[in-house]
Amino acid sequence: MSTRALVDERILSSPYHSLIPRTNMNSFYQPENVGLTGLIIRLQREDIGEVARDDEALSFALELQLQELSIVETDIADHQFANKWLWQLDCDYKLALALSNLHHEADAALLTCTGCDSRFTRHQSFKAPCDRHFFCFECLANFFEYTIGDESLYPPKCCDIEISLDNVRKLLDDKLVARYEKKKIEYDTEPTKRTYCHGLKCNTFIPESSIENDVATCSDCGKRTCTICKEKAHRGDCPKDEDTQSLLDMAEKEGWQRCYNTKCHRVVALTIGFNHITYVSHTHGICVTKLTII
């Protein structure tokens, strides 16, 4: 009997030979058979080791058989690695596809800022009262900031619809809100009725709440400004008050007199009665003044 035949006989007589799958070599590479195939190869190695001790020629032949088993074992390991790599590649592809779908869905849900054209979520933007446009919080703040410095932008609008401060107050910085509210008082005052501090380095708008008897007091520098001539506050009637000057000219011609109370200065005319009268005025509080009509 040849050495090869003897080897085959020894292998076939092995109690582990029946464990070898009755299919072609492809079955060795199936994931479910990898463990079994490895066990068979290990057991056959042990059997070959026992047989190889008896005969030198047989030992050489069995060595060749071991080399074949090593090749098969390596091949199976390579296939197993390739299968795992392909499986991982498939998983990565599915994950990338899922993430891509999520990205497209998320991108479709983003809104475009009218100011900077960037994309933001609904919770990161303000919907203008026109119901057509959106502003990111930064552009919204810039809009109000620009309005403070440029009256032509007041009030801030989108599609000719005013953006009310009350609707965006919580989205703006407190300091910006305070500055805008102060500027709003100025813008809401008719230009011809506005008074600014006469101080060259100040020029701060003085609201009506800080004006008394035609004198405006600046809350920033404390200077007092005449609301009529817009210059430094002065005593007596303002020479630039045309209405007052016309009245005084008429009073002089008609012989009328003025109340000498500096907080009153009303013109009084005697039509009938005594020359000595007590004049009562409620225009500037209560003024009770005794006048002698000459």
From TrEMBL:
Residues 178-238 form the IBR domain. The keyword Zinc applies. It holds the Pfam family IBR. Keywords: Metal-binding, Ubl conjugation pathway, Zinc, Zinc-finger. GO terms for molecular function: ubiquitin-protein transferase activity; zinc ion binding. Gene3D superfamilies: Zinc/RING finger domain, C3HC4 (zinc finger). This is IBR domain-containing protein. The lineage of its organism: Eukaryota, Fungi, Dikarya, Ascomycota, Pezizomycotina.
